Amino acid sequence: MKLQNRDPLIIRILMVALFCMVILRCDSDFFKTKEVPVITDLSADLYEVDPGDTVCVTVVVDDQNDEALQYEWSANGGQFIPPMNQPQVLWKAPENGGNYKITVVVSNVDGESDPCSEVIYVRDKEPPEILFMEFEAYEVDPGDTIQISVTLKDMEDPTLEYHWTADGGQFLAPANQAVIRWKAPAVGGEYQITLAVSNNKKQSEPRSETVVVRSFAAPYVEITAPEEDGVFRQYDTIGITAIANHQNGIESVSLYLNETLVSTCNGRDEETYSFSCELTGPEGVSVLRVEAVANITGIIGSDERNIRVEGIILGK
Questions:
Q1: Looking at residues 259-268, what average pLDDT do you find?
Q2: Contact status, residue 220 vs residue 303, Cβ threshold 8 Å
Q3: At CB < 8 A and 24+ separation, what contacts does 56-59 make?
Q4: Tens digit of pLDDT for each residue in 71-117?
Q5: CB 3.0–4.6 Å: which of 93, 94, 96, 108 could bond 67 by disulfide?
Q6: What is the pLDDT of residues 203-217, one digit of tens each?
């Protein structure tokens, strides 16, 4: 009788044990130890870069369970270049200089790692540097059109703006670029063409070149002394003053007395020229003439004055 009373209890124990074995066999994860990923290393190929540079960042993870990992990257500036859900990503530096923190968190089915960060320093953006300007011609006729180009240290910056200016003539559209065309004005002279280049932060030092536009007008010449019909004695030495100018400048200025060359001087920035002359000619009317030769074209302009020369009277 006693054994018979124990049979139902034994049977129930055996059934519970069998049920647990079935459940545990079906759920093998029961025996697993939950392990979140552990970041063992985070590195970048560059730690100091210029605005717009690309940096490669790599994370190394210790994952005991060998589960599929998810990577969550973030930064306080710049931008990541897809794809991003992987252990190695590309990050593009922003235009503003400073320190930027790149952070990654790695997760699996058991949870996520502690965040890990590296700091990348982005240098302040430098102003564009003009290496040289090239002109199709530096001496042109009125109305001519020439091509002008500039070479910069960094021509690839997408934020570049070109600021061309000139004190005459006109730029043909489009003018906000490295290669432009400039049309010379109708009036001859020296014209300064200036360029400053800016990025989205700073502007370069301006660079200027001069283009000469030929003038085919005669130089302006005016004798200011002596006066017309001034009276002088024979063999006196008199002073002659003249103004001479031209849009291309003056090459030389000469004084003539009755078609005889007296003196020549080189042109200069000042417009006033002075000469001295001994009146060795005969009595009567003599002609003083001042001639100026223009730079580049060699065109001559002149002015004349008549003077009266009196002979010497003995005893006076």
A1: 96
A2: no
A3: 56/88, 56/89, 56/90, 56/91, 57/88, 57/89, 57/90, 57/91, 57/102, 57/104, 57/118, 58/87, 58/88, 59/87, 59/88, 59/104, 59/106, 59/116
A4: 999 999 999 999 999 999 999 999 888 999 999 999 998 889 999 99
A5: 108
A6: 999 999 999 999 999
In the chain, what are the domains?
Answer: 38-122 (2.60.40.10), 130-213 (2.60.40.10), 220-310 (2.60.40.10)
Q: Which residue has the tokens 């049920």?
A: 19
* Residue where the block lists tokens 């001034």: 230
Check whether 21 has a pLDDT greater than 70: no
Measure the CA–CA gap between 16 and 12, rounded to whole angstroms: 6
Is the Cα torsion angle 148, 154, 160, 163 positive or negative in sign? negative
pLDDT number for residue 300: 98
Q: Is the pLDDT of residue 308 over 80?
A: yes
Phi/psi region, residue 229 (left: phi>0; alpha: psi -120 to 50; beta: rest), is: left
3-state SS of 167-193? CCCEEECCCCCCEEEEECCCCCEEEEE
